[in-house]
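Incident log, entry 3
Record: N(6)-L-threonylcarbamoyladenine synthase (368 residues)
Problem: checksum mismatch between cached and fresh output.
Input:
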Amino acid sequence: FSVLGIETSADDTCAAILTSERKILSNVVRSQHSYHEAYRGIHPYAAIEAHQRHLPDVVRQALQDADMSVNDIDGIAFTRGPGLAGCLSVGSNAAKTLAAALNKPLVGVHHMQAHALTVFLTSPPEEAPEFPFLSLLVSGGHSLLLVAFSPTNFRILATTLDQSIGTAFDHVSKMLDIPWIAAGPGASLEQFAKTAVDEAGSDDIPFDDIFVTPMKNRLAFSFSATESQTTTFIAKKGGLQNIDTKTRVLLARAFQRGAARQLEHKLTMALKRCRKDGVNIRHLVVSGGVASNSVIRERLRACLDAASPDEHIALVCPPPKFCTDNAAMIAWASMDRFLSGDTDDYSVELISKWPLEEFGTSLTSRIA
Ligand code: ATP
Ligand code: FE
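Fresh output:
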């Protein structure tokens, strides 16, 4: 069974073709970073326009890369939510129209479920996690710590009280005036933080202690706190113009480490909570765009070892290109529904705000 997946929930225009044997026949991602660099963030109208401009070509490219005609496709999947309504509508209208015109089955996918299940697509079966597992979804729109009991049953343990970790990376990258690389502002910050600076070794950050983990007794995240610790530091120096490059690098490092430390702290608390509730966790799956950050991965690995020295908890991350938005994960998350005949009407509506805990119970009855 082959599925054409379409993803347009945020700023990447994506199409992919995947088979039920887990073969990724094509996976096209057209990033909009250059559009958004001017705004230093996602501009909703620019994002909609870019999706409208690129999607036809991206779908065409996905078919070409897979060496398939659209008639060879067995089903069409698209991101139904959550996401920016205008952006979602570009992909959903395309998917619905294609499916109706070709008389193919259609499935609307929950974007965050897709991120959480990507690992079953990218890991060899022997390394795939066993349910229940802990999942940390750290992206541009989300900072979520959850327990996955099954592919459709999730319990959210923690979310952010303000903004996502990815947004904090984006803001701090902008605040420090870090040159953007193609992979976007978060990845630019990671790279900038690696810049070698005289005297200071990689572990020597003189002002590391300003990044105090907020709400130490609660599972909830706050990345506005981590961001504003950076803002305060810069303000105390009288502005970025008074901060030399070396200090900027160290500040980027300290921010990154502060964000990682917050994740570690809450992860340790979540593991304790699971143990107390009798939920036996053997795997932590980290996905979302921020999961491609190597410092964060290393710190989480160390944290699991410290929190659970006797029983090994495996850390599983999809490869970086599957951690950020892509349509292969959308096609993958739809596969069980296609195979069991549980498909959507061509009139299915998108759901811009769609809590992950709700979606398993009301797949077809919700409206935007
Ligand atoms: P969501 O999936 O929640 O709707 P999104 O689609 O914007 O949000 P992703 O594409 O999964 O999210 O991730 C993008 C985010 O990840 C951006 O905020 C980006 O800056 C951040 N990011 C990407 N690479 C890195 C990195 N190496 N270090 C830190 N942050 C990163
Ligand atoms: Fe995403």
